[in-house]
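Example protein as discussed:

>
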Amino acid sequence: MIDKKTQFFRIVVLLVISALFSCEHSREAKKTPYDAATYFNMGTVQLEKGENEQAIGFFNKALELNPKYVDAYYNRGIAYRRQGLNELAIGDYTKTLELNPKESRAYANRGNVYLDKGRYDDAISDYTRALEMNPKDAISYYNRSYAYYLKKNFDKSWEDVNKARALGYRIPPDFLADLQKASGRQQ
């Protein structure tokens, strides 16, 4: 038979062990990260606020948890471009397209980065792919017209200006004036 002192001691030991386990379990629960979707959503909020560095951090965490999170690559590409990290943006848009080849926005945005870098043929190619998937993308017509303009292919530039206009896009007056002057045409 166990005396009361020993029984009390055992109960105290069990309570201490239980309390320690509970504290450790609680500490581990606090370390548990959010899921990838939560990190993605937090990154998107930061991206919309213009907090690109914070957005990139959240998208990185989302991608650590889910390396095939297409939208996280896409949005991180936007944040990288805003930070002037063009090669990283191109990489993320390319990864987006590897995971989802039908993501026309990734072609259009990668085209924008190529345009920024002076890679006009690559930009035109990406805008063309975006337009094949989404022929009502007036902004891609305008951007492709600008790339053609920079390559001095004014006929193609005018074609895309007219397509963008037909879709309701208002062409910037300065660009129209420059295109008219360079091409010798009025439209």
